[in-house]
Each structure stands twice: as C-alpha cells, then as structure tokens.
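Hey, quick one: can you model this chain's 3D structure?
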Amino acid sequence: MRAPFPTLEDAFAEARAQPPTGLTELVGATDRSPHAPARTGSASPFPEYAPPHSEQTPDAETLRAEAEAIRLKAIQEAERIREQARREGYQRGYEQGYSDGERDARQQAETALQQTLETLRAELQRALSAVHSQYEAYLQNAESQMLELALEVARKVVREELRLQPEHVRAIVRDALRRVQGFGRLRIRVNPLDVETVRQHRPALLQIVDGVEGIEIIEDRRVDPGGCIVETEQGVYDARIRTQLGEIERVIREAA
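Sure thing. Here's the predicted structure for all 256 residues.
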C-alpha cells in the first residue's frame, strides 16, 4: 500500500525518471557553446556544484575592512585608556597638590604666627622695659622730690626751733670749738641776731679750747641764725645750718 506522502527516495526516483527541463536545458545550452569542452560519460540531470561567494567566506576587501575596524577600535581603546590614565593622574596630582598646598599653607601660617608672636614678644619686652624705665625714673624723681621735701621741712623746723629758742646757738658754737684745734686768737662768725647770746658765754667758750689767747665774736649776715663759722690759724670750720643740712642731704642721697 502506497504511503500518503512520498518519501525522499521516491522523490529522487521520480526526478530521475522525468526529462530535464528548465535549469537542465540551460546547462545543456551552455554545454553546447563552441568553447565548451566535450562532455564524457553519462549526462547528469543537475548542474555541477560550484560554491558561491557568501558571508561565511569573506573576500580580501572584507578582511581589510575588518582589520581597519579592529585597528581603529584598538586606537580608540588606547586613547580611552590614555585619557583615563591622564584623568586619574590629574586627580591624584590634584589631590597630592591639594595636600601639598594645604601642608605648605599650614606651614606658612605657622611660620607667620611664630613671627607674629616673636614680634609681639619683642614689642612687649620693649614696652615693659620702657615702663620699667619710666617707673624707675618716676621713683627716682619721687625720691628726689620726697628728699627735697623732707630737707625743706627739716630746715623750717630747725629755723623755727632756733627762732623760738635762741640759746641753741651756744650748743652749736661749743660743738664747733670742740672740733677745731688752734693757738692764738679765734674768730667766731655768727648771725647778728646771735651775737649778744654768744658774747655772754665768752668765758665758758674759752675753756673749751686749750691754748687759745682770746675769742673774737664777729657779726656776719652770711651765717644763718643758729649757726657759726670758726676761724683758726690752722683753718676754718663751717658750722652754718645750711652747711650741716647739706651734709645731711649728701649722706642721705648716697645711701638712697
């Protein structure tokens, strides 16, 4: 019983049994060209197989195009890698530069701060030295003023005391005579206000100095009340009040 559909073997058998048409005639016509080689053997109902050019078998132009594309792609990839490396290097350089700049800025700030502190320290030292010098000058001036004031007070007190008690001049004259040595005659110069008081005590004054033949009491306005000047053959002893106060002032200033 025949199958409802022909098999592959049936199709080939049927094709061999049919006369050639179409492509077979075209091939036969081609074979009948004057330049066609003589055919030998039995004729085939199919043309000889010649593999056509296809995409699976590229020609030289296609290979060159693909090679150029690969080369361009490699160039682009190399450029991309180079650009990426440049950017990364720039970023690292920027970060390094920023870090270096920050460090340099910090060092510069620290150096500037140190210089400012040194300048302020020097200015402060100069200011303190100036203040100390001014303070020392003030103290010296104050001490001098206080000394002058104290001496002026002492002068006034002494003068007032001698005015109220003129007999103090006798003690000053006696003290002056004890400090001198002389022979012959002595001259005692006193203020006119003290002449009579000193003359009244002439006998007592003669007993103080040995070898004195006589004492001459002379008025002298150069002598402050309460003081005297004793003149001998050996020299002069100044017992004026101003002289004594000046000696006291000298001692005080040297001790200050």
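One thing worth noting: The longest strand covers residues 212-219.
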